[in-house]
Amino acid sequence: MLSWVSDWTLPDVEGMHHMARETCDVLIAGAGVIGVAIARELRRRYGVKVVVLEKESTAGRHASGRNSGVLHAGVYYKAGTLKARLCVEGNRRLRAYCRQQAIPLNEHGKVIVARTEAELPALRELYARSQANGVRASLLDQQALKEVEPCAKTVQQALYVQDTAVVNPQRVMAAMVADAEREGVEFRFGCAWQGRESDGAARTDRGRVTYGHFVNCGGLFADRIAHAHEVGLHFAILPFRGQFYQLRPGSALQVRGNIYPVPDLRNPFLGVHFTRRPEGDVTIGPSALPLLGREQYRGLTGATIGGTVTMLAYLMRLFGRNRDHFRSIAWTEMIKLTRAGFFREAADLGRGFEKADLLPGQAPGIRAQLVDTRTAELVSDFVIEPGVRSTHVLNAVSPAFTSSLPFAEHVVDTMRLA
Ligand SMILES: Cc1cc2nc3c(=O)[nH]c(=O)nc-3n(C[C@H](O)[C@H](O)[C@H](O)COP(=O)(O)OP(=O)(O)OC[C@H]3O[C@@H](n4cnc5c(N)ncnc54)[C@H](O)[C@@H]3O)c2cc1C
């Protein structure tokens, strides 16, 4: 047993006997890729009793099972940021994990193409960042681009990134959960963290859980869980829905790996892109629509009145300040709500693409984007905040899926285990 695991006793409170009680060394809320990876790392490192609470009936029902499945190589992020370091290593480690688990990968890499001359400085900036991060990437002229992605279109130059790969994220989640269970991590599915009791124990919808340390990996709800621990009070999560289409299999546009646009580097999102999944289908997306409800996967389903009021207040502030180019994000995303607008967004990335090639795509995913409420800015880097006997993962946005293995090691390194 570790020294930081307190020798707790359960109070024998009248009326509590009908509730289940549980004790563990580390309690984790959320079985997304981050919660599962941290649970495995804690087990591997310390051999302690780790319990993961997940409100859904299985793991990876939210962002971790509903993303693009792109294992990013690390070209976008400024050198020295957590994202840069953990993504580059995460890409290498997750590809190795997939090979070891016989999970299929598409390893045709990706090209980032310029749609206008005005995008060329940002393309060169991405090349510079890739070099600073030690990522294998090269600038191609149009002829060389044809050899890599025959249908991709660009103005003058494109950036070719060899190590970008694509995986089915649900297969990764299933493998990681199976490994975690074999290694002794205990999952409580269909069990939601509901609050923190005055003595620090967790209240769940199945009873009380006492623990030595608590790790918050609650994704779209991570801010609320942190606030209950008096942590990250100036942060809030703003949900952005990513909608996908699928490329009609007979389309004249052929995609081998990934075709991405040059993103607006002031925004946290990478733009609508073409991605060939290992199963062979090509996804087009995702959009990034700010939402009123955290799990608003369709229309207004998932929006609550309280949540809507809070989200509207943040949206108004972001809009008012025009921070992070928020007005242009919101505007371009509204356009993508229509099929015609979505088509226009992707049309200039490749030859032979037609509106009729847009078929309904995979289930949408929702990004848990952190906002600093003091400045109304969208936070770009990963955020991990310590609390009393607790650790809170607050901005596990893309590329956190790619980065999950070293991300988990980093979180465990930063835990205050006194
Ligand atoms: C559309 C989209 C595309 C993306 N594309 C990529 C990509 O190509 N590459 C990449 O690297 N990343 C990508 N990402 C980002 C990536 O999916 C996330 O960074 C990652 O999945 C975050 O994992 P997580 O475990 O923090 O969150 P989640 O997967 O959301 O897990 C959080 C879990 O906590 C549970 N939970 C919440 N509240 C409670 C509670 N009270 N009690 C118990 N359980 C609770 C939820 O049910 C959920 O299962 C994308 C994300 C989206 C949305």
TrEMBL record:
Q: Which residue numbers delimit the FAD dependent oxidoreductase domain?
A: 25-320
Please give the InterPro entries that the UniProt record associates with this protein: FAD-dep_OxRdtase (IPR006076), FAD/NAD-bd_sf (IPR036188)
Instruction: Identify the enzyme class.
Output: oxidoreductase
Q: Which domain of life is it from?
A: Bacteria
Report the cofactors: FAD
Gene3D superfamilies tied to this protein: D-Amino Acid Oxidase, subunit A, domain 2, FAD/NAD(P)-binding domain
List the GO terms this entry assigns under cellular component, sorted alphabetically. Answer: cytoplasm
Q: Which family does it belong to?
A: Belongs to the L2HGDH family.
Q: What is this protein called?
A: Putative L-2-hydroxyglutarate oxidase
